[in-house]
Predict the structure.
Amino acid sequence: MGEGVDPTQMCQRLVDKVAQSRQLLAITDPELLVLFEDWFEELEEEIVSLVKEYGPLGPTELGQKLGLSQRGATFLLSKLGREGKL
């Protein structure tokens, strides 16, 4: 093997990539994708409703109200803002 190559790390990366591929394959199942899209749409509608009721919400406050991480709430607020829904 070449200098600096760790076969253990190479194998672990390969195993990680295979696992990730399997996860992505599961998500692409049409039935699961429809369920995810429905859930996501309901979540967006709930956020719009909360903003109408309480006014602008920060990611931390929104996350607390919906049980989302701050990162997830930030993503959703940004997405809805870009789409002109907020």
Observations:
- The CA atoms of residues 12 and 18 lie 10 Å apart.
- The chain has one domain: 9-82.
